[in-house]
């Protein structure tokens, strides 16, 4: 299994052999023996390309999970189990990672010098097991998947705001129902569609329209600063613009439901020291009064 996953991760027999410190012939032979033992072909190989077969994809996902569990089990019963070390593979939303996660990494490195970090940023929900992540940061109302362990890291407040120039030209809405006559810039990945949901009382939704939808919050923030319309975005994105006056909060008496920043990781009996130390570090750095809300 280790040879097979190494070949898939490396993308070639040569690179896998280098990582395993074996010869290419030995790696190829071990993979052939594995396929013979299983009675299936795991990889389609030509002189130039290599790709997983359908059964190979299923087997790879299981191998990644089993090998990770084996490593954690061995660490849990070894004297090194309390020492954070190795490469920590983390997935996080793009804008949140750039603004609030990346600046913390040097401090974490100082505290845990034996831990390396491989950070992947995107705004889609990844499959931690299939894609080989140790940990993901997610912004949601609930932790999403019951198969994952979730730890609350910080509250995330969402506010409606716009540029002073836009409000001067189009007026300031005094109540949610007035949003229908405004340009409301939408976020593509929201589960709310074209409605903005207000917490109340009583809770209610308002249908909104706008000429722009985007799958990245920073794009919407910059468009709003330029006077394109109203946005409903988290304070970790708009905090700086609110503090320096480039954006102005509206409908402050009509709160939107809060979200939460979660750390999620696969449900396993033994939690590795590198994951535990990173989650503890983030929880302490952000907490119930996160720095992005300072002054708001």
UniProtKB/TrEMBL annotation:
<keyword id="KW-0238">DNA-binding</keyword>
<dbReference type="InterPro" id="IPR000847">
    <property type="entry name" value="LysR_HTH_N"/>
</dbReference>
<dbReference type="InterPro" id="IPR036388">
    <property type="entry name" value="WH-like_DNA-bd_sf"/>
</dbReference>
<dbReference type="InterPro" id="IPR005119">
    <property type="entry name" value="LysR_subst-bd"/>
</dbReference>
<feature type="domain" description="HTH lysR-type">
    <location>
        <begin position="1"/>
        <end position="53"/>
    </location>
</feature>
<keyword id="KW-0805">Transcription regulation</keyword>
<comment type="similarity">
    <text>Belongs to the LysR transcriptional regulatory family.</text>
</comment>
<dbReference type="InterPro" id="IPR058163">
    <property type="entry name" value="LysR-type_TF_proteobact-type"/>
</dbReference>
<dbReference type="Pfam" id="PF00126">
    <property type="entry name" value="HTH_1"/>
</dbReference>
<keyword id="KW-0804">Transcription</keyword>
<dbReference type="InterPro" id="IPR036390">
    <property type="entry name" value="WH_DNA-bd_sf"/>
</dbReference>
<protein>
    <submittedName>
        <fullName>Transcriptional regulator</fullName>
    </submittedName>
</protein>
<dbReference type="Pfam" id="PF03466">
    <property type="entry name" value="LysR_substrate"/>
</dbReference>
């Amino acid at each position: 299994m280790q040879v097979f996953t190494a070949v898939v991760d490396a993308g070639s027999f040569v690179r896998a052999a280098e990582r395993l410190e074996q010869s290419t012939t030995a790696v190829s032979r071990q993979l052939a023996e594995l396929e013979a033992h299983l009675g299936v072909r795991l990889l389609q190989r030509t002189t130039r390309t290599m790709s997983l077969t359908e059964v190979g994809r299923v087997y790879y996902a299981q191998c990644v999970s089993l090998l990770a569990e084996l490593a954690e089990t061995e660490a849990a019963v070894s004297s090194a189990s309390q020492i954070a070390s190795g490469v920590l593979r983390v997935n996080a939303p793009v804008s949140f990672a750039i603004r609030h996660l990346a600046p913390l990494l040097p401090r974490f490195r100082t505290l845990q010098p034996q831990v390396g970090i491989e950070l992947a940023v995107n705004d889609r929900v990844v499959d931690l097991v299939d894609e080989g992540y140790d940990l993901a940061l997610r912004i949601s109302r609930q932790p999403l998947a019951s198969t994952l362990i979730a730890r609350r890291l910080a509250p995330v407040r969402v506010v409606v705001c716009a540029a002073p120039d836009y409000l001067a030209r189009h007026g300031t809405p005094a109540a949610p129902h007035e949003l229908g006559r405004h340009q409301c810039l939408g976020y593509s990945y929201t589960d709310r569609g074209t409605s903005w949901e207000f917490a109340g009382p009583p809770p209610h939704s308002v249908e909104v329209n706008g000429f722009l939808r985007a799958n990245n919050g920073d794009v919407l923030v910059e468009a709003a600063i330029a006077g394109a319309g109203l946005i409903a975005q988290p304070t970790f994105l708009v905090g700086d613009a609110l503090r320096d006056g480039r954006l102005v909060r509206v409908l402050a008496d009509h709160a939107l439901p809060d979200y939460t920043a979660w750390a999620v990781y696969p449900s396993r009996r033994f939690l590795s020291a590198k994951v535990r130390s990173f989650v503890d570090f983030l929880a302490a750095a952000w907490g119930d009064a996160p720095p992005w809300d300072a002054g708001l």
